Amino acid sequence: MTDNRENWSARSGFIIAAIGSAVGLGNIWRFPYVAYENGGGAFLIPYLIAIFAAGLPLLFLDYAVGHKFRKAPPTAYKKLMNAESLGWWQVMVTLVIGIYYASVLSWAGSYMFYSFGQQWGTDTQAFFFNTYLQNGEGLAFGFVPTLFWGLVIVWSAVMLILYGGVRRGVELANKIFMPLLVILFSILVIQAVRLPGALDGLNAFFTPNWEAMTNYKVWLAAFGHIFFSLSVGFGIMLTYASYLKRKTNLTGSGVVVALANSSFEILAGIGVFAALGFMAFSSGAKVEDVVSGGIGLAFIAFPKIISSLGAGGDLFGFLFFASLTVAGITSMVSILQVPIAAFQDKLGWSHKKSVTLIAGGSAVVSTLLFSTQSAITFVDIIDYFANNIGIVGGGLISIILVSWLRRPLMQQIQSHINQYSSIKLGMGWNFLLTVVTPLSLLVALGLTINSIISEGYGGYPAHILWIVGGGTLAFFVIGALVLSMFKDHHSEEK
Question: For the chain, which residues make up each domain, given as ranges?
Answer without folding.
Answer: 11-484
